[in-house]
Amino acid sequence: MAIDFERTLGVHAQALRLRAQRAELIASNLANADTPNYLARDLDFKSTLAGYAGEGRLAWTAAGHVQPGAARAGEVLFREPTQRSIDGNTVEAEREKVLFAENSVQYSTTLKLLGSRIQGLMTAIRGE
Amino acid sequence: MSLFNVFNISGSALHAQTVRLNTTASNLANAEAASSSVGGTYRARQPVFQTVLYGGGVGDESSAGVGVADIVESEAPLRKEYRPEHPLADEDGYVFLPNVNPVDEFANMISASRSYQSSIEVVDASKQMLLRTLALGE
After folding, report:
1. Chain A residue with Cα closest to B69
2. pTM, 2 dp
């Protein structure tokens, strides 16, 4: 019986990719903290992941059909600032730093989960 | 692997903030450089930041670095002082001094070094994340 990596790694492989994309977005926000008219961006992790997993989507039977509600998979959204600055920049550096830290912890968590799945496979392969 | 892009993004931010620090340094260095004419007087200069999109493809809008679009000179009026003993004084005894405001420059300097710091932290955290990814499954 062949090993189904897709099923073994589950949603974690996709989650890892999303976490990396989110790290990139937040790094962009921090890099542009002093750029006039820059709008801070982020992902809605939950709905994006659900979108990838195919949850909560309607059947797509005609070209004119539109998915309701949640953000499309991988769609980048603009952050709603608590206080817009006078140069049109919506980056709040402190908030972004906290979100970056949060995201990297979550990235590590996902890595750990992936790691244990792989460990499980290794154990099964070795049969020890 | 998109995490590698973080190095590009933060690298561009480090460069842009360095340019900003450099202009601040030259503004402060030239704050008292007198001249005998309006045209020959140093004017405070500031970089203008601009978002630089990497990737460029449709749907790949994640990476946005920062670049220096231009360096502009301040339009604020120059200081004109009556110093007839100054070797550079014009025939009426006036010298022109740069429109550098040291308070502005110091505030800019602190802001630039804070932004530089946070970019460094982002690079450091991303490096850790990548190294941990390399060790996956060990």
Report:
1. A35
2. 0.83
